Sialate O-acetylesterase
Amino acid sequence: MVALEFVLWLVLPLILRPYTSADAGFRFASYIGNYMVLQKEPAGAVIWGYGIPGATVTVTLCQDQETIMKKVTSVKAYSNSWMVILDPMKPGGPYKVMAQQTFGGMNITLSVHDVLFGDVWLCSGQSNMEMTVSQIFNATRELSNTAAYQSVRIFVASLVQAEQELEDLAEVDLQWSKPTSKNLGHGDFEYMSATCWLFGRYLYDTLQYPIGLVSSSWGGTPIEAWSSVRSLKACGVPKQRFMPSDYIYGPNEYSVLWNAMIHPLHNMTLKGVIWYQGESNVHLNMDLYNCTFPALIEDWRQTFHLGSQGQTERLFPFGFVQLSSVLPSVDPDDGFPQIRWHQTADFGYVPNLRMPNTFMAVAMDLCDRTSPFGRYLCLLGVV
């Protein structure tokens, strides 16, 4: 018996070695980090990550050296993942979140600091949403006013495609950050999304508590790329994978952006989503947009509700921007009026029976015909 114990004592470190490196073993999910915003009450924020199967994970929320709560779970064998749901928290902070993995007598501890509780919004779509703060009217003033909005935190997913649904983001362009002139105006059509930022800034001015903004968008992309296979099937979208269009210059294969840029976020507890997209469908399944858009909303709501263990509301608010006008030189029969109509599931208004708890920003009058970006700012309608 003593000999067996001695052998196990020698072999155990060799067995555990593959799991104990920081990059291959215990870690938070990609979007959990310093300066993040977690969803406030009445929902509970989800904290999750990866570890050694069977290990115990203890998550602790602290403030000023005081322990606010502890949650204990274990790492699932089939997915190598762990998850806890924090008790609902009032808006505010900062807090520190620590996670400790215990396995085979070894402890590994991770921590993230300056964590706030508030409302978390996901911003997605095509170039309309991707357009950067540095490209808008009054950009200089906007970029110089970041000191007043240090409780509006921003996060940007990288442009990635995948053939299958990913459980976590493969890459991140901008980890959770406090806003600065540099990260708000990083580059044309790079981080940070102007529509997302202006929306979040307005919410902060109105609500006076922290706001978290998660930007995941890609210019020139059709709705099919952002839709799951099941929602496309429900709308009878044809199986052909490509149709030429002047408005498509990003990924156009079905579901590849849903798989890589939306599904990896589905465990996150959200307050809501805003969306700005449509012109890439002028010549791609336009007549189905009255189904594919409501189906996307329904599918995203169901997926985030289930992924967060019911913490994200089943019918969370979903807002979208109506397509703006275009330059006079563009063919008047350009399909834009049809897309605008289909954006409301052919009701002409929201919310409606097919699109409950949705809201729309009317943008018909926002075209800047002198924009240095040509027709783009007419499509974008950002001021």
Notes: The mean pLDDT is 89. The two ends are 76 Å apart (CA to CA). The CA atoms of residues 118 and 207 lie 10 Å apart. The chain has ten helices and 14 strands.
